[in-house]
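Cross-posted from the bioinformatics board.
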Amino acid sequence: MRRTKSVSFLVEFLIVILFFAIIAAVCVRIYGKAYSMNDIAQSKEQALNYAENYVETNSEKSNEPTAYYLNDDFKKTSDAHSYLVTVGQDKIYKYIKIEKGETLLVKLRFYTSKAGDQNE
Amino acid sequence: MNKKNRSVQLGLGIPTILLIFIALCMATISVLIYLNASQNSTMTEREARYVEAYYNADSKAKRIVDVLNGVINTNNSENIAYIKDKYAVNVNLDDSAYTFSVKINADKLLSVKLDSRFNVLVWKVIDKQG
């Protein structure tokens, strides 16, 4: 009788461990997805702040198209690091684009009459 | 004999009850974390869209100011008609002040008012209804 009870308990325990493993795997997946979403959102917010600052402080300058890298603290760095900043110009408008790897985080368009095409 | 009676035995069903409790806790925490991240992501996305739309409107308005004050060579003597045609923006001239609005998004407009010397008097975001 006691042996049967122990076997039943063992079987139940194994089934519980199996279900626990499945639930834990699903929860870890959800957590991983949430972490990744938060990471992208945070990068996007920082990139947006950087781009806005850039536009507000450089909109009166007629600076040349350029590209440079930023590290995780959004400080300029010479190595190919986290963020790639590209400042360029279409026909009329200039733009600043910030990418992290293959992901485009933000692209802001701005206008400087000094650098812009003087003909329509 | 006494010792045997005192030994603790987990009954059948206890691990299942524990599993249900732990699973509910884990599921609740995971869902809350996911919802928080999702909301954060949506808000950042919305903010990014708005900022991009604002700077599009801002640069368009600056360009229109340059066209109005003649910095830009449009080969067109009637700048106001040219702006309406090219940028789909109506420029009004009342009491020697130029006013126009550039659409930012479905709800917001960038309202601009210039004096006769094209100095900016008003450069602000307004609600479309207002």
